[in-house]
Design a protein that fits this description.
Belongs to the tetrahydrofolate dehydrogenase/cyclohydrolase family. Pfam families: THF_DHG_CYH (PF00763), THF_DHG_CYH_C (PF02882). Its EC number is 1.5.1.5, 3.5.4.9. Homodimer. It catalyses: (6R)-5,10-methenyltetrahydrofolate + H2O = (6R)-10-formyltetrahydrofolate + H(+); (6R)-5,10-methylene-5,6,7,8-tetrahydrofolate + NADP(+) = (6R)-5,10-methenyltetrahydrofolate + NADPH. With 282 residues, the chain is α/β, with parallel strands linked by helices. The chain has two domains: 32-116, 3-Layer(aba) Sandwich (Rossmann fold), CATH 3.40.50; 140-260, Rossmann fold. It is built from ten helices and nine strands. It has helices at 9-29, 45-61, 76-87, 107-113, 125-133, 141-152, 172-181, 196-200, 242-248, 259-281; strands spanning 5-6, 35-41, 64-70, 94-97, 161-165, 185-189, 205-208, 225-229, 249-252. The strands form two sheets. The protein has a six-stranded parallel sheet. Helix 2 (45-61) links the parallel strand 2 (35-41) and strand 3 (64-70). Helix 2 (45-61) crosses helix 10, helix 3 (76-87) packs parallel to helix 4 (107-113) and helix 5 (125-133) packs parallel to helix 7. Bound molecules: NADP nicotinamide-adenine-dinucleotide phosphate. The site of NADP nicotinamide-adenine-dinucleotide phosphate (NAP) has 26 residues, from helix 10. Residues 142, 165-168, 170-172, 189-193, 196, 209-212, 230-233, 239, 259-260, 263 line the site of NADP nicotinamide-adenine-dinucleotide phosphate (NAP).
Length: 282
């Protein structure tokens, strides 16, 4: 890359969605409307916004959105029951349980209850394991979005040192696995990492997945690093300090308008993929 690039997530998301339109049309000719069920438990306003955005994005594209909103008092057993019903409903192709659920619920048990073929956000241990081994159908949507942005902009991973800051099961760990499978040399950092700025300084590619606003500073970066910021914090700021990181980087995702819109488009894509799989199996 010769000049600095702002990695436009909206453009990438539009590209993904345009690619889905003819596929959805073919499914409809065969009598199948791709369908995503979203489950929101409780009243967390950010979670409610994310679920609404996902549902609206489905409907704009002709994907059916079944929105299930359960009260915050819902027990683990009740949530598992809802998931089992969706697993057994042949008109539902993808299931998304919005994270986090209220703390009294066993979130891991709920994730594990999602049928693998409907696990369009890669939250089950089977889905995660298959992603890590390189043959997963549906990696978590944000890691998948990061890879999609890299591919759209021809950002090579092979032989590069990628430093991922964060190791959550839905983001840091799966994106580390995907980058490793793309032949990057990957370092995954976390809250116990010692000398984080020095490690980030070695990175050709930095993935920010920390959940702390403007945490990664420009003076931590090697000149010309590619910065992929998955963070989304109150006030519309990412996990990197944008201005200083922009100065040092060769390419950077903005917040908003970077990883976020592509994440939603990957959820739509995985739902269409799942509907097609069902048709193939018929
Ligand atoms: P998370 O579950 O809270 O994980 C945060 C990770 O950051 C943990 O692995 C934690 O380490 C690490 N960390 C925390 N403080 C650190 C420090 N001082 N130094 C180094 N590492 C540190 O968060 P998440 O769900 O992965 O989300 C991360 C960010 O991505 C958030 O801003 C979230 O809003 C955003 N996000 C965006 C999208 C999207 O569509 N754009 C989707 C999902 C999430 P430990 O493991 O040691 O605790």
């Amino acid at each position: 890359m010769d000049e600095k690039l702002i990695l436009d997530g909206q453009k990438v998301a539009n590209d993904v969605k345009e690619g889905l339109k003819p596929r959805i049309a073919v499914l409809k000719e065969d009598g199948i409307i791709p369908s995503l069920a979203t489950i929101l438990v409780g009243d967390d306003p950010s979670s409610a916004t994310y679920v609404r955005m996902k549902g609206n994005a489905c409907e704009r594209l002709g994907i059916h959105s079944q929105r299930i909103h359960l009260p915050k008092e819902t027990t683990t057993d009740e949530l598992l029951q809802t998931i089992h019903e969706l697993n057994n409903d042949p008109t539902v192709h993808g299931i998304l349980l919005q994270h986090p659920v209220p703390s009294h619920i066993d979130e891991r048990a709920a994730f594990e209850a999602i049928a693998l073929e409907k696990d369009v956000d890669g939250v089950t241990s089977w889905g995660y394991g298959q992603t890590a081994l390189g043959f997963g159908l549906y990696p978590s949507c944000t890691p998948a979005a990061i890879v999609r942005i890299m591919k759209y902009y021809n950002i090579e991973a092979e032989g590069k040192h990628a430093v991922v800051v964060g190791r959550s099961p839905i983001l840091g760990k799966p994106v580390s696995a995907l980058l490793l499978n793309m032949n990057a040399t990957v370092t995954t950092c976390h809250s116990r990492t010692v000398n984080l700025p020095e490690i980030v300084k070695q990175a050709d590619i930095v993935v920010a997945a920390v959940g702390k606003p403007e945490f990664i500073k420009g003076n931590w970066l090697k000149e010309g690093a590619v910065v992929l910021d998955a963070g989304y914090n109150p006030g519309n700021v990412g996990d990197v300090e944008y201005e200083s990181c922009y100065q040092k980087s060769s390419a950077i995702t903005p917040v908003p308008g970077g990883v976020g819109p592509v994440t939603i488009s990957m959820l739509l894509k995985h739902t269409v993929d799942a509907a097609e799989k069902l048709l193939e199996a018929k």
